[in-house]
Specification:
Helix content: 40-55%
CATH architecture of the domain at 6-22 and 32-97: Orthogonal Bundle
Shape: elongated
Largest sheet: 4 strands, mixed
Strand order of the largest sheet: 1-2-4-3
Radius of gyration: 26 Å
CATH superfamily of the domain at 6-22 and 32-97: Winged helix-like DNA-binding domain superfamily/Winged helix DNA-binding domain
CATH class of the domain at 6-22 and 32-97: Mainly Alpha
CATH topology of the domain at 6-22 and 32-97: Arc Repressor Mutant, subunit A
Number of strands: 4
Distance between the termini: 19 Å
Number of helices: 8
Length: 227
């Protein structure tokens, strides 16, 4: 089964490749063979994110016509990219971009910092910041105080707790956006909200514009919604 999630047309790829010709070449550099220059151009587009990974590339004949080169040149370029791990192909399904498998992460880099080092070191590999105390503790304590009334109910509020929806609606209204609690849906996280939006607006067969590169999990939600 082909592992491509998007497609790049021959004309589009040709425009991207031609835009690279405006970049100044180094002094004294020798011109590489045509197939090598084409392979390097496609590889650079993938590394820069201008052509996403898992994007289906045009057929050899189509790209050759758009670039005004021979099909042999395109075939050799595709073969070079396959050998380098930047292209995967399947007979009858075409070719799509890829990235070579990297070296495994060192296990030492996955170990958490020891507690005694947290105050004197900043781990740039971790995006988590210290908890905002004492506000976090106060918020947790306040939530626990509000919990008992809901513990005696079914606890099933698909759109969020009514009191929370009312407070959010009042906040929007105070900012000049008249809002009713019935217009508010509280989700368990960003992915839950995006999933609801995809099923509401992204009907089967609909096209959705996304950034490139984009968040893979969001693309998967769009595919599951039928877009």
């Amino acid at each position: 089964m082909a592992q491509w999630t998007s497609a790049v047309g021959a004309a589009q790829l040709a425009r991207l490749l031609n835009s690279q010709q405006d970049r100044p070449a180094g002094a004294g550099t020798r011109r590489p063979p045509a197939y090598r220059a084409l392979a390097d151009g496609i590889r650079l587009l993938v590394l820069e994110g201008r052509v996403p990974v898992a994007a289906r590339l045009p057929a050899e004949r189509e790209l050759a016509l758009s670039l005004s080169v021979s099909r042999t040149t395109v075939a050799a370029a595709y073969e070079a990219l396959r050998a380098e791990g930047f292209l995967e192909s399947l007979r009858g399904a075409g070719s799509w971009t890829a990235v070579p498998a990297g070296n495994p992460l060192p296990a030492r880099g996955l170990e958490p910092l020891p507690p005694e080092a947290l105050g004197s070191m900043i781990d740039l590999g971790c995006a988590a910041l210290p908890a905002p105390e004492p506000w976090l503790t106060r918020a947790v304590q306040g939530a626990l105080e509000e919990l008992p009334p809901y513990a005696h109910t079914h606890g099933d509020y698909p759109a969020g707790l009514p009191a929370l929806r009312t407070m959010i609606a009042e906040r929007y209204t105070a900012r000049g956006i008249p809002t009713m609690p019935e217009q508010i849906m509280v989700t368990t996280g960003a992915m839950g909200a995006i999933d609801a939006i995809c099923h509401l607006f992204g009907g089967r067969g609909e096209r959705i514009a996304v950034e490139s590169p984009s968040y893979a999990n969001i693309l998967q939600l769009m595919r599951e919604a039928g877009a």
